[in-house]
Design a protein that fits this description.
about 325 residues, alpha/beta, Rossmann fold, 2 domains, six-stranded parallel sheet, four-stranded parallel sheet, 12 strands, about 15% strand
Length: about 325
């Protein structure tokens, strides 16, 4: 019996985007583990005593999603992927990345982080990263990566594609820890174009940020949970716009017209590599209204061969037949 231990980055996370990523990753991984004993521990809090014991006995440890790859040294620090010195011996050479991205662009990798990641990641497996920056980082520490894009996109577009013309409503997201004057222009544009505008706080602190912007009193608010967001997206046609990449991608899962605002390397890279509709943050003030009024074409190009090659590593071995 195979034992696969999952590092679940949606556990103990205040960002519902992690729930979106992990849910989609498991949608593709779980059917391949039907014969396996599957256990989990938290990525944000670290493994703890019981998680460490489970990972020690596991055949493989799979790190599920989020932008946990860093060029800065992260061992024994509070980070979205928390690993302590006690964990190193347990995880050594066992970790396989699934849909993991880099948290920012980098020019060089701290030598301690190079040592740390080289020691942690499995040398016997291909690692799934969601963008070119992540692939470059994994290669730089001496391991093999496949740029599979993000698991949230692996299902592709709904049959029949997405609507191209404006919906009568819009829902948007903001990012409290990456504020910018263009966010006020984003909100003003949406209020001008749509008779009904909703806001979904992917993190609760995003709501406080919204309330600092002019016009916020005209916005309808959703609860900061995925069930409330899914219910709105499923109810009726609505455009999805915002700085939260995975909150925007969630609109695709419901067949909605989407436009992601790129505030860092993640949306920029994924948009360039897959065709996900993206607008640069620097262009919001001058160009957002024109982009929303015009048809938005979404034709995703996904690395299907690389996705299949990565997932094939988890297929159960064929049973031996008697001769």
């Amino acid at each position: 019996m195979r034992h696969i231990h999952l590092i679940d980055t949606s556990v103990a996370s205040d960002n519902v985007g992690d729930e979106i990523i992990v849910g989609q990753a498991r949608r593709h991984l779980d059917p391949l583990l039907a014969d396996a004993y599957v256990t989990r521990s938290s990525g944000h809090d670290g493994m703890g005593h019981f998680g460490r014991s489970l990972a020690a006995r596991a055949d493989l440890v799979v790190m599920l999603g989020t932008n946990a790859l860093s060029a800065r040294f992260r061992l024994n620090r509070h980070y979205m992927w928390r690993v302590t010195w006690r964990d190193l011996a347990v995880l050594r050479g066992k970790v396989v990345l699934l849909g993991v991205g880099a948290n920012r662009d980098f020019d060089r990798i701290d030598w301690r982080q190079r040592w740390f990641l080289h020691r942690l990641l499995s040398p016997h497996h291909l690692h799934s990263v969601r963008d070119a920056t992540g692939a470059r980082l994994v290669a730089a520490v001496g391991h093999r990566a496949l740029n599979t894009s993000c698991p949230t996109l692996w299902a592709g577009l709904p049959a029949g594609g997405l609507p191209q013309e404006m919906a009568p409503r819009a829902v948007f997201t903001l990012t409290r820890h990456r504020p910018d004057p263009s966010d006020a222009a984003l909100l003003a544009t949406l209020l001008r174009l749509y008779p009904e505008v909703w806001f979904w706080p992917q993190q609760p602190r995003d709501l406080t940020y919204l309330q600092s912007l002019p016009g916020h009193a005209s916005v309808r608010l959703l609860a900061p949970n995925l069930a409330a967001y899914d219910a709105l997206l499923a109810a009726a046609p609505i455009d999805v716009v915002g700085t939260r990449l995975h909150g925007t991608i969630r609109g695709l899962h419901h067949g909605r017209r989407v436009l992601a605002v790129a505030i860092d390397n993640r949306a920029r890279d994924i948009g360039a590599e897959t065709g996900l509709p993206v607008i640069a943050r620097a262009d919001v003030t001058a160009a957002l209204e024109a982009r929303l009024r015009a048809p938005i074409m979404a034709r995703l190009t996904l690395p299907d061969a690389q996705i299949a090659r990565f997932l094939d590593q988890f297929r159960a071995p064929a049973p031996e037949t008697a001769t």
